[in-house]
Amino acid sequence: MMNNAPRRRARWVLYGFLAVAAFFLWSEHRAHLMGVLPYLLLLACPLMHLFHHHGHHVGHVGHGVEMESESHNRKEHLP
C-alpha cells in the first residue's frame, strides 16, 4: 500500500499541471479558436456524411428483394 502513495501523488501533480496548461492555452488562444470554430463546423458536415454512411451500402440488394416479397405477400392476403 505504501508503494502506491508516490504514484498517486505524481498523478495529482500531473493533473494539476495539465489543468494549469489547459487554462493558459484557453485564455491565450481563445480568440483564435473562436474564429476558426465556424469553419470547423462546416468541415465537420461532409466528414460526418462520409463516415456515417460508410456501412449503408452492404445490404441494399437483399433488402430490396425482401421488401418486394413482403409487399407481394400482403397483396395475396387482401380480399
Structure description:
The protein is flat and about 50 Å long. 85% of the residues lie in helices and 0% in strands. The longest helix has 49 residues, at 4-52. The mean pLDDT is 77. It has helices at residues 4-52, 60-77.
N/C terminus separation: 79 Å
Tally of individual helices: 2
The portion of residues assigned to helices is over 70%
Strand elements, count: 0
How many whole angstroms does the radius of gyration measure? 28 Å
Average the pLDDT over all residues and give the rounded result.
77
Poorly predicted runs of 5 or more residues: none
Quick structural overview:
The protein has 79 residues and is an all-alpha fold.
Using brief descriptors, characterize the structure shown:
2 helices, flat, mainly alpha, 79 residues
Element layout with pairings:
Elements lengths: L3 H49 L7 H18 L2
